[in-house]
């Protein structure tokens, strides 16, 4: 028997984030608890502790199967096929033959104060809940994500756990965003917040489940500009374009860059110079200002009964140039799905703005201004995450500053 929290892999960091403390014991393979202790959680480890991808609840075959099969239509084909096969096998009780993981606490202790699943069950109204937990490679920017199911296998919530400075800030930001989002015609369907709070040095948000029949977007290259524009306008009407010069946004770019210098970031001087160049070059360009989702990408979008569904709002912000989400969609699709470097991803973002920008009121000059401002905004986000303890995203830093400098040097 060993404690996976001592490991350096994905299972180690997930268990440290979820089951921290000397008054909590975690063991693989799971064994009966020691005298004076009781088991509060039991999971199947898929496929094994060294290569863990999932921690599956084993309360019943129904719950295990549901944890694999719910929302499977959102996943890419290979993962979908794997989860379907595992879920079908789980209905027969096959998960019992997988390696097991147990979570135990002292017998006299209230489990709601030590075991996050029982804490969330109480906060969500009481009743029994079971958790399915994804396992990702260690990264200080990753948050454990916990799907909660009742004994019938019905999903009851999707919990995000902030466990360090960077991830706690992201969970709090999403909590605030979800509380402020509008609804109604034209705006995407948004799963709403069920619970938010602090627990054992963790920041937690539980979002309601996605609709059961949600599907992946049929056209991942389509940025869905109508809904994107509704998000930018926060469900309201268009506002008059204003010059970038003197805007709170451009001032914020300069202040953020200066803050990075003060924090000791060795590359931040380049960001300060870029912010000044953006002001000088684009100060008289007029754009509409509004909100952005902040991570408008195909894997955060789906469809339900003909309506777009959008989730993961932790980067939402106001008072940015309309078109940021469009630039982000083009950039991140190329960077993540096509695995191209930042320079090529920037060209993909430029193509997206050229194709859909006119629908957002952006002419060629405004498209270029929006993209260059977006690149510096994205670098500042990358720096803030690194400064909060998550480390640099090497796909973006220092490449974004290189790309931006090249673009600003062009006539």
TrEMBL record:
Q: Which InterPro entries match?
A: Kinase-like_dom_sf
| Taxonomy, superkingdom | Bacteria
- Please give the name of this protein: Aminoglycoside phosphotransferase domain-containing protein
């Amino acid at each position: 028997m060993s404690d996976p929290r001592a490991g350096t892999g994905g299972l180690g960091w997930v268990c440290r984030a979820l089951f921290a403390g000397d008054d909590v014991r975690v063991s693989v393979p799971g064994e009966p608890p020691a005298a004076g202790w009781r088991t509060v959680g039991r999971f199947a480890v898929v496929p094994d502790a060294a290569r863990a991808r999932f921690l599956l609840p084993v309360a019943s075959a129904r719950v295990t199967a549901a944890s694999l099969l719910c929302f499977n239509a959102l996943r890419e084909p290979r993962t979908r096929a794997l989860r379907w096969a595992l879920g079908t096998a789980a209905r027969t009780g096959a998960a019992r033959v997988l390696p097991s993981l147990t979570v135990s606490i002292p017998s006299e202790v209230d489990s709601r104060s030590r075991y996050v699943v029982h804490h969330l069950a109480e906060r969500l109204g009481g009743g029994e809940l079971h958790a399915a937990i994804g396992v990702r490679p260690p990264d200080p920017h990753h948050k454990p994500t916990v799907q909660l199911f009742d004994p019938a296998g019905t999903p009851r919530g999707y919990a995000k756990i902030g466990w360090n400075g960077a991830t706690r800030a992201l969970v709090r930001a999403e909590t605030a965003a979800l509380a402020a989002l509008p609804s109604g015609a034209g705006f995407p369907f948004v799963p709403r917040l069920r619970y938010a709070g602090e627990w054992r040095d963790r920041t937690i948000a539980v979002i309601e489940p996605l609709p059961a029949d949600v599907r992946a977007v049929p056209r991942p290259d389509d940025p869905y500009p109508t809904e994107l524009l509704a998000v930018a306008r926060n469900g309201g009407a268009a506002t008059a374009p204003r010059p970038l010069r003197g805007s709170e946004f451009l001032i914020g770019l300069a202040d953020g860059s200066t803050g990075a210098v003060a924090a000791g970031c060795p590359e931040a001087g380049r960001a300060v110079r870029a912010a000044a160049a953006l002001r000088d070059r684009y100060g008289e360009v007029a754009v509409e200002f509004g909100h952005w989702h902040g991570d408008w990408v195909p894997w955060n979008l789906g469809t339900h009964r003909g309506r777009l569904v959008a989730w993961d709002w932790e980067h939402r912000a106001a008072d940015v140039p309309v078109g940021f989400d469009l630039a982000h969609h083009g950039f991140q699709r190329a960077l993540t799905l096509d695995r191209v470097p930042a320079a090529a991803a920037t060209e993909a973002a430029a193509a997206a703005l050229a194709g859909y920008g006119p629908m957002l009121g952006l002419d060629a000059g405004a498209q270029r201004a929006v993209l260059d401002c977006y690149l510096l905004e994205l670098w500042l986000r990358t720096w803030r995450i690194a400064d909060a303890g998550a480390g640099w995203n090497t796909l973006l830093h220092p490449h974004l500053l290189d790309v931006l400098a090249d673009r600003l040097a062009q006539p």
